[in-house]
Specification:
Helix content is 42%, strand content 10%. The protein is α/β, with parallel strands linked by helices. The protein has a 6-stranded parallel β-sheet with strand order 10-7-11-12-14-13, with helices on both faces. The protein has a 5-stranded parallel β-sheet with strand order 1-2-3-5-4, with helices on both faces. A 5-stranded mixed β-sheet has the order 16-18-17-19-20. Strand 13 (655-658), helix 28 (663-679) and strand 14 form a beta-alpha-beta unit.
């Protein structure tokens, strides 16, 4: 029986392969591919299927030695500079452990990826110039020590910086991982949250094409390079964007997967082969796959292997055995890899030292350069380079090299350091070694000069984050006057108001072209389909079909210069697009303004990690949590009802979170956000709730703009009296609060002031900041919080009701000296009408009235019997199950 490893008729096989080579030689690769496709189709007709085998190739390098380009650099000088970088990266971790202890670090990660970085930095990665912002490089988060070590010998960081690795609190330190907020001139992307770099890289490459097709910024020869580990590919986000990248032919995108076969605690695929698995995934998704598995010392063996036995052996051996063979040394390696007479004959005249040189491709600059060169010129597909290396390479197999404990290695003995020094031929004395001294070549050192020349030729240092400040004029609030006037007798939702705001912004001469509307698939649900016709949906190929709704005015219109990014059902993909646009001011020198509108339930709760990454990267833009709240979306139930996202938003320092009840509030907030982010160039972003519940939108009262932005203002003032309560409401529940105020007056002769709280978050932040100021300056004259100013002269009870969990309005409790009762939508959601849902969650007008009476009872203003009478009057069942309990 013929199998992959046993050929019953090698002569026939040779003839088929020779015929294919002849076809390629005389008729070209395209003709050969066509013939192969026809043969496969014919095979399928007769029940012969290839299953998944066609997606993988033998476990050898993709590029044969005879097709490798000549290496253009000085290998000796590059090796010297890489050795210095490796040394300083190790010293950073060891010194931190010695000086302060406990701050951690990674010895093994950068050791594995160093050559992959150096070849790119010396020959491929373009820095920013006056003509171009350069390439976008997603450096692997856990290898930051190497980036710092290189920046040190480049002169960008000092020894003091390196000495304070992971010690930032008192200033002058270096962040543990890539962090643009903490190191805004150095890091471009936050990549340490595993998997997010891959997804962001795909959408960054796509955004480059988007900007190019819209005539905003040419792609030119700019590339997006994404470095990641093979263990990192376990994260679903790592592969979530692969089909998009292939479908849209993102040939400006290169993934470099550092396949050292290890995760943090063990092997990635101990019983299988991770490289083969990834090759199948990427190949199946339509990517160009390049494998860099073996170093140049293997070339002679493969050339001498006439039957393919070595390739077959390397393909069948599982990763666990392959890793053990490296760790155990040449004798074990020989016995494990060359385990047949035929294979043993290949190395019969090889010494153990010769065997020890049989290394992996990730550490061979010649092999890496060949892969990068092929990837850089490949067209029509994104490229992935699967590069096999050793975790902890250079640290010694007796220490951590290739071992399961590599990730947790934080120390090296004197003997291990000497071994490292000698292996990489470093000019470091025993004294320097024992005292953990950094090493920096003299200014006239040939290797240092060479490194500077290479970076100068490629445009400048990397990583680097360069922001060109550009104040963009935004439309004044008066431009939205028609919205501020309210809706008269017409009922409107704030989501409909959002459409009107977008219409004004998109038509503005200054910012219109910079707006990037982003949706995950619910544009018509939000009532914003007018954007389809007016602005078009971005598609790199335009519209190759006739849409079935072509005859309609608001048909589904795709175009190459479309402005709307309609991403499909992927909040993660939308967030990656949003990040690309939200950081465009730094990555492309062109400030853009992304507005991502989505079901709020699927925002912070589903892609909160990406939102934090966006904040880390100083993103600017709007996130619109549509169909917001737990009771405003009728019928949908638990999975669509959001009661917590505002709490999540409250934890992100640069996020401004708002819950506007009225259209004029939303308008003021968005106009202020545009001013703050585009004109004032502040690195913040806005999270704004939008409801689908329709009600009459009032005109904006005079003088409320400041209060809207600060988070709270008096919407409806009552007469002063002893029987008086303050009612606080936000979002759609403000309508219930206003109705409750009327009931209190009508049924109980109690006056109620109504405050619209557009942001409990902003009110709380102001109060917390002032409290801190007073605590540290106790002799200073007390400063009133904005909350105190709003409540000036009032010492009565306060009731707050929102469409979110009680913890949201509870944010301000520490700053109140009042009886304070909060209502919220704690517990699981339900499917029903708004009226029923609000009664169930106890946030409707009747429960607000009861809460107000209860607060007044606690203040000694009404009796318990009066509260009980109100409960009976409004037919509230006090024995019904608590919605919080399960």
């Amino acid at each position: 029986m013929t199998t992959e490893w046993h050929d019953e008729d090698p002569t026939e096989t040779h003839e088929w392969r020779a015929a294919l080579r002849s076809l390629i030689r005389y008729e070209g690769k395209e003709r050969a591919l066509f013939i192969l496709q026809q043969v496969l189709r014919e095979a399928e007709k007769h029940g012969v299927t290839t299953s998944g085998t066609a997606l993988t190739t033998l476990y050898t390098n993709t590029i044969p030695p005879q097709q490798q380009p000549e290496y253009p650099g000085d290998l000796m000088l590059e090796a010297a500079i890489e050795a210095v970088i490796r040394w300083n990266a190790i010293m950073m971790v060891l010194k931190a452990q010695q000086d302060v202890g406990g701050v951690g670090g990674h010895l093994a990660s950068f050791a594995s990826i160093s050559t992959l970085y150096e070849v790119g930095l010396n020959h491929f990665f373009k820095g920013a110039t006056d003509a171009s912002p350069g390439d976008l490089i997603f450096f692997q988060g856990h290898s930051s020590e190497g980036n710092y070590a290189r920046a040190f010998i480049e002169g960008r960081l000092t020894e003091e910086h390196l000495t304070r690795f992971r010690q930032e609190v008192n200033g002058g330190g270096l962040s543990s991982y890539p962090h643009p907020w903490l190191m805004p001139d150095f890091w471009q992307f936050a990549t340490v949250s595993l998997g997010l770099g891959m997804l962001q890289g795909v959408y960054q490459a796509r955004f480059l094409k988007y900007m190019d097709n819209r005539g905003l910024a040419p792609v030119g020869d700019r590339k997006v390079w994404v470095f990641c580990g093979d263990g990192e590919m376990d994260e679903p986000e790592s592969i979530a964007g692969l089909s998009l990248a292939a479908r849209e032919k993102l040939d400006n995108l290169v993934f470099v997967v550092n396949c050292n076969l290890q995760r943090l605690d063990g092997l990635v695929r101990s019983n299988y082969k991770i490289v083969q698995e990834l090759e199948g995934i990427f190949h199946g998704a339509g990517w160009n796959v390049i494998k860099v598995l073996w170093n140049s010392h293997w070339d002679r063996l493969f050339a001498n292997d006439k039957t393919g036995a070595l390739a077959r052996r390397l393909t069948e051996i599982v990763d666990g055995d392959l890793q053990t063979a490296h760790v155990k040394g040449p004798v074990y390696f020989r016995e494990t890899i060359f385990n047949t007479e035929e294979l043993a004959a290949l190395v019969q005249d090889w010494s153990d030292e010769d065997i020890s040189f049989l290394g992996r491709g990730a550490h061979d600059p010649i092999k890496v350069y060949a892969a990068y060169a092929l990837a850089a010129k490949h067209q029509g597909q994104p490229t992935v380079i699967l590069s096999q290396g050793i975790k902890g390479y250079g640290l010694g197999v007796n220490h951590a090299e290739g071992r399961n404990i590599a990730h947790n290695a934080l120390e090296m003995t004197a003997e291990e350091l000497k071994g490292f020094r000698d292996r990489f031929k470093l000019d470091i004395s025993d004294e320097q070694l024992s005292t953990y001294q950094f090493y920096k070549p003299n200014a006239d050192d040939p290797a240092l000069k060479y490194m500077h020349e290479r970076r100068q030729a490629l445009g400048g240092f990397l990583p680097a984050r360069i922001v060109t400040s550009e104040a963009i004029d935004v439309p004044p609030l008066s431009a939205f006057d028609s919205i501020l006037q309210g809706s008269a007798d017409r009922t409107m939702s704030t989501t409909m108001v959002l459409g009107r705001i977008l219409n004004v912004a998109l038509k503005d001469k200054s910012i219109g072209k910079r707006i990037v509307p982003i949706f995950s698939d619910e544009v018509r649900t939000f009532g914003l389909e007018a954007l389809f016709r007016q602005n078009g949906i971005y598609s790199p190929v335009g519209q190759l079909y006739t849409p079935e709704d072509k005859e309609q005015f608001l048909y589904y219109h795709e175009s190459t210069d479309g402005q709307v990014l309609e991403e499909g059902i992927t909040e993660a993909g939308c967030m990656a697009s949003w990040i690309a646009a939200a950081t465009s001011y730094a990555t492309h020198r062109i400030p853009m303004m992304p507005i991502f509108t989505y079901y709020s339930m699927f925002g912070f709760q589903r892609v909160g990690d990406l939102i934090w990454a966006a904040a880390d990267m100083r993103a600017r833009g709007f996130l619109i949590g549509a169909t917001a709240g737990r009771t405003t979306l009728e019928g949908e139930g638990l999975q669509h009802q959001d009661g917590t996202s505002l709490l999540s938003a409250a934890n992100v320092p640069s996020c401004r979170a708002y819950d506007p009840a009225f259209g004029y509030e939303m308008t003021v907030i968005m106009q202020h956000g545009l001013q703050e982010m585009m004109h004032d160039q502040k690195d913040v972003f806005y999270y704004i709730m939008a409801m689908n519940e329709r009600y009459i939108q009032p005109a904006m009262p005079e003088g409320v703009e400041e209060g809207i932005i600060k988070g709270m203002y008096l919407y409806q003032k009552a007469q002063a009296s002893d029987m008086r309560v303050h009612l606080l409401g936000s979002g759609a529940i403000l309508i219930e609060v206003i109705a409750a105020a009327d009931l209190l007056k009508q049924d109980f002769k109690i006056n109620a002031d109504v405050f619209s709280v557009t942001s409990f978050v902003e009110v709380q932040r102001d109060a917390a900041a002032i409290q801190r100021e007073m605590m540290f300056h106790p002799e200073k004259k007390p400063t009133k919080t904005y909350l105190e100013k709003c409540l000036k002269g009032f010492d009565g009870p306060i009731v707050a009701a929102t469409d979110y969990v009680r913890a949201y309005p509870e944010l301000i409790r520490p700053y109140l000296n009042h009886i304070y009762v909060t209502l919220g939508t704690d517990g699981y959601g339900r499917s029903d009408t708004r009226q029923q849902l609000r009664a169930f969650f106890e946030v409707d007008r009747y429960h607000i009235v009861v809460a107000a009476l209860y607060a007044l009872m606690k203040a000694g203003k009404v009796t318990a019997k009066q509260v009980a009478a109100a409960i009976k009057k409004y037919q509230i069942d006090p024995e019904k199950p608590n919605p919080i309990t399960v």
